[in-house]
Amino acid sequence: MKMETDRIRLRPWDRKDLEDLYAFARNPAVGPQAGWRPHQSKEESSQILSRMITTPDAFAVVLKSTMRVVGMISAGIDTSRRNLAAKTIGCALDEAYWNQGIMTEAVGLMIRHLFDDPGTELIAMDHFVENRGSRRVIEKNGFHYEGTIRQKVRLYTGEVKDCRCYSLTRTEFEMRNASS
Q: Which of 13, 70, 112, 119 has its CA 20 to 30 A from that of 23?
């Protein structure tokens, strides 16, 4: 499946993405919203890029008008559920592109990609309580609010954060697509 919209493309990471990754991952407004420390050096970005290149379901978010990487999105097993057919999505976007619908499109593409696997029954996403941008992305993609887990994450700073949790079942996704 080709993962693209009119504006963006999701594609596997490549070594040539280092400059773009470092450009947005060093921004102190980006990483902490997703729970990770801003990258301190290109070497750190290079190490993380090496891991993303070999990680299944980890994609660069590419703005088609410039062909630059402006974000990241990945999925893995939702370890908070005992249902191994559940996946979870994580993402981050260059601050210059916030509030433009780009991550909403990227998450929509990732949802379709994950549900292309007939074994995926549910997709989960969560966000820190104060992150309204992520909340909008999640809700626009049809996820249902499950509740807030208090003190879910301890950040690299030692700060403990609450997370709002959401899910989307295969049935909900199929019903939503059938009516659109």
A: 112
